[in-house]
Amino acid sequence: MDHRRILFISLSICISIVSSTSVFPKEVVQFGFCPKYDLQAMNKHYQPFIDYLNQTTAYRFKINLSPFYQETIGRVRQGETPIASCGPVPYLKAREKFNVAPILRTLNKDGTPYYRGIIITRENSPILNLQDLKGKSFAFAQEWSTTGHILPRYHLLKSGILLKDLKQYSFFRNHDFVVEAILNGEFDAGAVKDIVAYKYQKKGLRFIYLTDLVPTVPIFVGANAPVDMVRSVKAALLKLNPKDPKHQKIMAEWDEEFKYGFIEASDSDYNAIRRILDVVEKKTTPDERK
Hints:
Elements: H1 3-21, E1 27-33, H2 39-56, E2 59-65, H3 69-78, E3 83-85, H4 88-98, E4 101-106, E5 114-115, E6 117-122, E7 137-140, H5 146-158, E8 168-171, H6 175-183, E9 189-193, H7 194-200, E10 205-210, E11 214-215, E12 218-221, H8 227-238, H9 245-251, E13 262-264, H10 271-282
Helix pairs in contact: 3-4, 5-10
């Protein structure tokens, strides 16, 4: 038997063994999330979503969490997390600095790609409107939070209220902490995204102000994200139909913000938020920056 035939047989045996034992592992991809809730709750809410991507793509995604928005974006810049989900303002910050690109937007329970911020107080509070917030204490979420900071700041400015006009203000790590601070009487009012406000409404909250509709949370990718990975994620999520009972069952345990499906996204979707962010940043003095 000549050497070429021996080599051919050896290669055939190796291929057969590899095929029969499925030894090729899936490529691991870190999926970043900004801290909407505490980290334990984030794992609980987003793991079923990650499990779905692992079952429907050729990749093995892993949740990559950090306690601060800036840290999440920094990991995208470093390439540690080539794909992430954050609110509109963190996306715009990442777009400006690192040229990320949005690939999808979430849909809300009404089937539209918009949501609101809500300014809240306790149900027995004398505060009735934005003007009543002058001289009161206010709880914001993180500085880069769209509905927890930038939108309420914008609407306070439109009502003639600057940060210096508040008795006290503070930034909290997530929206749940904002609600807790208000319900516990530590702050007079605060701002959170709509799904968080509605979750706690019957526990003693009253809504002071609902913002205009803003574009929903994007999923975005780094400049060097693998093309095949991006294509796989888009295909897996866009094929979900929130009106299909089978797909509803798949998404039932997903986070409230993700469980109603997705549409394709573009940078221009966030132009209105870009303008609002510009207004707020121009009105923010160095002493007010956290």
